[in-house]
Amino acid sequence: MHKKKTLLLSCVFTLLSRLSFAQESSTTTTIKPAADNVKSVTNRIYFEALGNGLIYSVNFDRQYTKSFGSIGYRLGTGYTSTNGTNVFALPIAFNVVLGKSNRSFETGIGTTFIREAEEYSYSNYSSHSSSSYSRFSNDFSVVLTFGYRSEPKATPGFSFRAGFTPTYYKNEFVPYLPYLSLGYKF
Q1: What is the pTM of this model?
Q2: Which of 52, 54, 127, 151 stands the most exposed, by the fewest C-beta atoms within 10 Å?
Q3: Domain boundaries, the chain
Q4: Residue 138 β-bridge partners
């Protein structure tokens, strides 16, 4: 009990001493950041083969740039259809781009929402009738990104990305899923 009172009194006296030494300043100092440390925002639109969007996707990427690199996010959409199964993909990821030149290393983590729609149809030849039905399933994959990014730093222009997206989906891990992206930075 004695230790609790001592601790409480120490905290109160420390707080009071801090408040008693607080002063207001009549002058304010403005600190301007160095030119290298100014934040800027850049956007990209690109087509990606394989990667987060499964077979292919169209993506929007936004980066918040600082002097050491940038942090950002991407949103995309992809669609494919094979053997009566339609697959819609919605990749969402956060990424970090490291490098000061127009060639950078990119890493990130995200998820892809995947909606599968399977269509079945059958015919009854004896009654001359046919019927069809659909089955839907929704799932998510966890995706990592490790890759190379090349684009102009200061001006709009062509953007190129290539790398690997290790993916965990339906209790399976695919460590070497490649991706290739071509797009435009603005």
Answers
A1: 0.71
A2: 127
A3: 39-185
A4: 115
- Return d(Cα 105, Cα 99) in angstroms, integer: 7
Cα gap 150→52, rounded to integer Å: 19
**Structure tokens of 123?**
């015919």
Contact criterion met (CB below 8 Å) for 111 and 128: no
User: CA-based angle 116:119:122, to the nearest 5?
Assistant: 160
- What's the rounded Cα separation, in Å, for the pair 126 and 130? 11
d(CA 178, CA 186): 25
The b/e string for 135-146 (b: 16+ C-beta within 10 A; e otherwise) is eeeeeebebbbe
Contacts of 53 (CB under 8 A, 6+ apart): 59, 76, 77, 78, 89, 91, 112
pLDDT band at 109; cut points 50, 70, 90: very high
What is the residue-wise DSSP string for 76-141? EEEEEEETTEEEEEEEEEEEEEE-SSSEEEEEEEEEEEEEEEEEEEEEETTTTEEEEEEEEEEEEE
Q: DSSP character for 47?
A: E
Band (72; pLDDT cuts 50, 70, 90): very high
Q: What CATH topology corresponds to 39-185?
A: Porin (2.40.160)
